[in-house]
Amino acid sequence: MIVYCLALVAASLMPVVVGGAGPVYLAGALLLGIGFLAYAIGFSLRRSTARARGVLRASLIYLPALLTLWLLDGIPHR
Asked: Are 2 and 19 in contact (CB under 8 A)?
């Protein structure tokens, strides 16, 4: 789970590398990725139903929040 989570975080940073996202997305993607990774590591260290549910909740929050950040980062500010 940790390896897949690391791969997901790396993939989520690709819009910054390619040039489609800016600093707001970068900061948010890093924070969300670190949070998701923390849940995965926590589950890996001590497996329980409660921690598994935490990883599930983190995954359900991660992608919509990431896409929202990308959208907000693309809105021009005056």
From this structure: no
Q: Please, how many CA atoms are within 13 Å of residue 56, restricted to the half-sphere of its CB? A: 6
- Residues 52-65 have pLDDT tens digits of 999 999 999 999 99
| Residues 32, 74 contacting (CB under 8 angstroms) | no
pLDDT in tens, 27-48: 999 999 999 999 999 999 999 9
Contacts of 41 (CB under 8 A, 6+ apart): 2
Regarding pTM above 0.90, the answer is no
Q: How far apart are CA 44 and CA 37, in angstroms?
A: 10
